[in-house]
Structures are given as C-alpha cells and as structure tokens.
Design goal:
single chain, mainly beta, 6-stranded antiparallel β-sheet, disordered N terminus
C-alpha cells in the first residue's frame, strides 16, 4: 500500500485550531506545530509507530527553501528540538525524518502533562548551508 502524505494533511485539515506556525529566516520557512497524539487518526498513528494518547505530544517540522512565485521546495536538514517547561526543566526531543514523495518532514512524540506549557527550541541546518537557523514557539497541552 502506498504511504500517504498524512502528517502535513493532518495539520492542514484535522480541525485543530492552529495558527500559521512558521519562522522565516535566510530564505527558508520553518513550519512547526505541536499537538497531542490523540488527534491523529488511528491508521495514521499506527503507520508512523506513534501511540495515540492525550498524554503524548507530537511535534511536526518542515523546512522549505523559499522561491519567489512558488510554494517553495522541501529540503533535507539536520533538525534538533528541545523544549523547556515553566519550571525551566529541559528535555531533548529526538526527531526522525519522514519522506513521502517530494515531502520531507521531521516528527517526534513525547510525554506531556495536563496544562503543561512548553517552549520549543528548534535548530535547523539545511543541506548545503553552513550556519543553522533557529525557530522558537510555545504550546500548552490539554490532556483531559
């Protein structure tokens, strides 16, 4: 069975209330979102080996090289993600690359607590680039 480009579609059409979460820097757009994994369809979660749960968070990141007059081009990158809570506790969140057709994105799942507020720090080093790019965003998780 052909794998579907499900994570980007989930973010666009899942019914989750998401603002445009994008950081633009040096000709690149870093798209980033975080949500609880219970919002994933069972089939999607299973195909990516992700446990569906209100107490599991997921981060999804794509890196797009911006080109005038186009939607841009997805690029391979080294992506590092960490998050800290309001108490200053830091956790490194290992990501994995997913490729489906021309799409390239980076996903990770991790435990979260009810009303946990995390600040995500994302370091991205796109292919053929010497200096990393940085993105930062906040997300509060509701697990009940």
């Amino acid at each position: 069975m052909k794998r579907l480009v499900l994570i980007p579609l989930l973010i666009l059409f899942s019914g989750l209330t998401l603002a445009e979460n994008v950081t633009r820097s040096a000709g690149y757009a870093i798209h980033h979102n975080a949500f609880t994994t219970d919002s994933l369809a069972p089939r999607v979660a299973h195909s990516y080996g992700i446990q569906r749960s209100t107490s599991r968070g997921m981060v999804n990141i794509t890196v797009i090289r911006e080109t005038t007059g186009t939607t841009g081009t997805p690029v391979k990158a080294r992506v590092k993600v960490s998050a800290h809570n309001l108490m200053g506790q830091v956790r490194n969140i290992p990501v994995r690359e997913v490729r489906e057709g021309d799409a390239i994105y980076y996903i990770a799942d991790f435990p979260v607590a009810h009303r946990e507020h995390l600040t995500f720090e994302i370091d991205v080093l796109p292919e053929r680039r010497d200096t990393p790019l940085h993105a930062r965003f906040d997300q509060e998780f509701f697990t009940r």
